[in-house]
Design brief:
With 206 residues, the chain is mainly beta. The chain is built from no helices and 19 strands. Strands 4-5-6-13-8-11 form a six-stranded antiparallel β-sheet, with no helix packed on it. Strands 3-19-16-2-14 form a five-stranded antiparallel β-sheet, with no helix packed on it. A four-stranded antiparallel β-sheet has the order 15-1-17-18, with no helix packed on it. A hairpin with a 6-residue loop joins strand 4 and strand 5. It is globular and about 50 Å long. 32% of the residues are buried.
Amino acid sequence: MYLIARYRTGRAAGRCLWEILLEIRPRRLRQNARMNEHGVLAIPATEYRRTRWRNGRGWTREILALPDREGWHLRLSIAEVDVVADFSPFPGVEREQVLLHGNGLNLHFDDGGQCELLPPHQRVRFDGARAVTGIPLDGPVQVFNLMWRPEVVSATLLHRPLVGSMWCFGDERASWAVHVLAGSARIGADGREQAALAQGDSAWLA
Protein backbone atom coordinates (compact mmCIF):
# COMPACT_ATOMS: atom_id res chain seq x y z
CA MET A 1 0.00 0.00 0.00
CA TYR A 2 1.42 3.37 -1.02
CA LEU A 3 0.44 6.97 -0.51
CA ILE A 4 0.99 9.37 -3.38
CA ALA A 5 0.67 12.92 -2.15
CA ARG A 6 0.61 16.24 -3.90
CA TYR A 7 3.88 18.02 -3.25
CA ARG A 8 4.32 21.75 -3.66
CA THR A 9 7.52 23.66 -3.45
CA GLY A 10 8.91 26.83 -5.00
CA ARG A 11 7.57 27.50 -8.49
CA ALA A 12 5.46 24.33 -8.38
CA ALA A 13 3.16 25.92 -5.79
CA GLY A 14 -0.31 26.54 -7.11
CA ARG A 15 0.10 24.23 -10.11
CA CYS A 16 -2.13 21.23 -10.68
CA LEU A 17 -0.29 17.93 -10.65
CA TRP A 18 -1.29 15.49 -13.34
CA GLU A 19 -0.08 11.95 -13.43
CA ILE A 20 -0.21 8.79 -15.42
CA LEU A 21 -0.92 5.75 -13.25
CA LEU A 22 -0.41 2.23 -14.50
CA GLU A 23 -1.70 -0.91 -12.80
CA ILE A 24 0.38 -3.88 -13.93
CA ARG A 25 -0.42 -7.56 -13.45
CA PRO A 26 1.06 -10.09 -12.66
CA ARG A 27 3.31 -9.22 -9.76
CA ARG A 28 6.24 -11.30 -11.03
CA LEU A 29 7.37 -8.22 -13.01
CA ARG A 30 7.84 -6.42 -9.74
CA GLN A 31 11.42 -7.48 -9.00
CA ASN A 32 14.10 -4.85 -9.54
CA ALA A 33 17.45 -4.77 -7.79
CA ARG A 34 17.36 -0.99 -7.38
CA MET A 35 14.16 -0.96 -5.30
CA ASN A 36 14.30 -0.01 -1.65
CA GLU A 37 13.01 -2.29 1.09
CA HIS A 38 9.47 -0.93 0.61
CA GLY A 39 9.38 -1.89 -3.07
CA VAL A 40 9.74 1.69 -4.36
CA LEU A 41 11.99 2.59 -7.28
CA ALA A 42 12.22 6.33 -8.06
CA ILE A 43 13.31 7.01 -11.65
CA PRO A 44 14.37 10.64 -12.22
CA ALA A 45 13.94 11.97 -15.76
CA THR A 46 17.70 12.54 -15.89
CA GLU A 47 18.21 8.76 -15.72
CA TYR A 48 16.02 7.87 -18.70
CA ARG A 49 17.99 6.01 -21.37
CA ARG A 50 17.84 7.77 -24.78
CA THR A 51 18.03 5.39 -27.72
CA ARG A 52 17.24 5.31 -31.42
CA TRP A 53 13.97 3.77 -32.54
CA ARG A 54 14.34 0.24 -33.76
CA ASN A 55 13.82 1.49 -37.36
CA GLY A 56 16.16 4.46 -36.86
CA ARG A 57 13.49 7.08 -37.63
CA GLY A 58 13.23 8.73 -34.21
CA TRP A 59 14.35 8.75 -30.57
CA THR A 60 12.99 7.20 -27.39
CA ARG A 61 13.80 7.91 -23.76
CA GLU A 62 13.33 4.60 -22.01
CA ILE A 63 11.89 4.85 -18.50
CA LEU A 64 11.59 1.20 -17.56
CA ALA A 65 11.74 -2.20 -19.24
CA LEU A 66 10.82 -5.40 -17.38
CA PRO A 67 12.03 -8.01 -16.81
CA ASP A 68 14.98 -6.66 -18.86
CA ARG A 69 15.72 -4.45 -21.86
CA GLU A 70 16.31 -7.27 -24.33
CA GLY A 71 13.34 -9.51 -23.49
CA TRP A 72 10.84 -7.08 -22.00
CA HIS A 73 7.19 -7.85 -21.31
CA LEU A 74 6.48 -4.30 -20.20
CA ARG A 75 8.12 -1.09 -21.41
CA LEU A 76 7.55 2.56 -20.49
CA SER A 77 9.16 5.26 -22.59
CA ILE A 78 8.81 8.74 -24.08
CA ALA A 79 8.93 9.00 -27.87
CA GLU A 80 10.36 12.14 -29.48
CA VAL A 81 8.72 12.81 -32.85
CA ASP A 82 10.27 15.76 -34.69
CA VAL A 83 9.37 14.91 -38.30
CA VAL A 84 7.03 12.59 -40.18
CA ALA A 85 8.18 9.09 -39.25
CA ASP A 86 7.05 5.47 -39.46
CA PHE A 87 6.70 3.84 -36.04
CA SER A 88 8.54 0.61 -35.38
CA PRO A 89 6.17 -2.41 -35.53
CA PHE A 90 5.86 -4.60 -32.42
CA PRO A 91 3.88 -7.77 -33.22
CA GLY A 92 2.36 -9.39 -30.13
CA VAL A 93 2.45 -6.09 -28.23
CA GLU A 94 -0.33 -3.71 -27.18
CA ARG A 95 0.47 0.01 -27.19
CA GLU A 96 -1.09 3.04 -25.53
CA GLN A 97 0.18 6.55 -26.16
CA VAL A 98 -0.48 9.85 -24.40
CA LEU A 99 0.53 13.25 -25.79
CA LEU A 100 2.91 14.92 -23.33
CA HIS A 101 4.20 18.01 -25.14
CA GLY A 102 3.60 19.71 -28.46
CA ASN A 103 0.69 20.82 -30.62
CA GLY A 104 -0.52 17.36 -31.54
CA LEU A 105 0.25 14.19 -33.47
CA ASN A 106 -1.62 12.57 -36.35
CA LEU A 107 -1.41 8.79 -36.57
CA HIS A 108 -2.03 7.35 -40.04
CA PHE A 109 -2.37 3.56 -40.11
CA ASP A 110 -1.64 1.57 -43.27
CA ASP A 111 -5.00 -0.18 -42.92
CA GLY A 112 -6.73 3.19 -43.46
CA GLY A 113 -7.35 4.13 -39.83
CA GLN A 114 -6.50 7.58 -38.52
CA CYS A 115 -6.52 9.31 -35.15
CA GLU A 116 -5.17 12.45 -33.53
CA LEU A 117 -3.47 13.07 -30.22
CA LEU A 118 -4.29 16.65 -29.29
CA PRO A 119 -3.39 18.84 -26.30
CA PRO A 120 -3.48 18.68 -23.45
CA HIS A 121 -3.08 14.90 -23.06
CA GLN A 122 -5.19 12.95 -25.54
CA ARG A 123 -4.46 9.22 -25.71
CA VAL A 124 -4.96 6.23 -28.00
CA ARG A 125 -4.53 2.45 -27.71
CA PHE A 126 -3.69 0.21 -30.66
CA ASP A 127 -2.15 -3.10 -31.69
CA GLY A 128 1.62 -2.78 -31.92
CA ALA A 129 1.66 -4.88 -35.11
CA ARG A 130 -0.26 -2.21 -37.05
CA ALA A 131 1.91 -0.21 -39.44
CA VAL A 132 1.54 3.48 -38.53
CA THR A 133 3.08 6.81 -39.47
CA GLY A 134 3.31 9.68 -36.99
CA ILE A 135 2.84 13.21 -38.33
CA PRO A 136 3.60 15.97 -35.79
CA LEU A 137 1.39 19.05 -35.98
CA ASP A 138 3.22 22.37 -36.08
CA GLY A 139 6.45 21.35 -34.40
CA PRO A 140 8.04 18.50 -32.43
CA VAL A 141 6.01 16.43 -29.98
CA GLN A 142 6.72 14.06 -27.11
CA VAL A 143 4.49 11.06 -26.43
CA PHE A 144 4.32 8.77 -23.40
CA ASN A 145 4.49 5.23 -24.73
CA LEU A 146 3.21 2.19 -22.81
CA MET A 147 3.86 -1.20 -24.41
CA TRP A 148 3.06 -4.64 -22.98
CA ARG A 149 2.69 -8.24 -24.07
CA PRO A 150 -0.93 -9.19 -23.23
CA GLU A 151 -0.22 -12.93 -23.11
CA VAL A 152 2.09 -12.24 -20.16
CA VAL A 153 0.78 -9.14 -18.38
CA SER A 154 -2.23 -6.83 -18.35
CA ALA A 155 -1.94 -3.05 -18.04
CA THR A 156 -4.44 -0.32 -17.22
CA LEU A 157 -3.48 3.31 -17.86
CA LEU A 158 -5.17 6.02 -15.77
CA HIS A 159 -4.68 9.71 -16.52
CA ARG A 160 -5.92 11.88 -13.67
CA PRO A 161 -5.23 14.99 -11.61
CA LEU A 162 -3.81 14.43 -8.16
CA VAL A 163 -5.74 16.59 -5.72
CA GLY A 164 -4.61 16.03 -2.15
CA SER A 165 -3.42 12.49 -1.42
CA MET A 166 -4.18 9.17 -3.05
CA TRP A 167 -3.67 5.59 -1.89
CA CYS A 168 -2.44 2.83 -4.22
CA PHE A 169 -3.47 -0.58 -2.93
CA GLY A 170 -1.33 -3.41 -4.24
CA ASP A 171 -1.91 -7.12 -3.96
CA GLU A 172 0.03 -10.28 -4.77
CA ARG A 173 -0.62 -9.83 -8.49
CA ALA A 174 -0.41 -6.07 -9.03
CA SER A 175 2.28 -3.40 -9.25
CA TRP A 176 1.99 0.31 -10.07
CA ALA A 177 3.91 2.81 -12.15
CA VAL A 178 3.62 6.59 -11.78
CA HIS A 179 4.68 9.30 -14.23
CA VAL A 180 4.31 12.96 -13.20
CA LEU A 181 3.04 15.13 -16.05
CA ALA A 182 3.05 18.44 -14.17
CA GLY A 183 3.78 19.66 -10.68
CA SER A 184 5.54 17.32 -8.25
CA ALA A 185 4.67 14.61 -5.74
CA ARG A 186 6.04 12.46 -2.95
CA ILE A 187 5.50 8.77 -2.29
CA GLY A 188 5.18 7.38 1.21
CA ALA A 189 4.92 3.92 2.74
CA ASP A 190 4.60 2.84 6.37
CA GLY A 191 4.31 6.46 7.44
CA ARG A 192 7.62 7.53 5.90
CA GLU A 193 8.52 9.34 2.71
CA GLN A 194 10.10 7.00 0.17
CA ALA A 195 10.57 9.22 -2.87
CA ALA A 196 10.00 12.76 -4.13
CA LEU A 197 9.10 13.16 -7.80
CA ALA A 198 9.44 16.30 -9.92
CA GLN A 199 7.71 16.99 -13.21
CA GLY A 200 8.76 14.36 -15.73
CA ASP A 201 9.95 11.84 -13.11
CA SER A 202 8.56 8.33 -12.71
CA ALA A 203 8.37 5.60 -10.06
CA TRP A 204 7.78 1.86 -9.94
CA LEU A 205 5.82 0.59 -6.94
CA ALA A 206 5.74 -3.11 -6.16
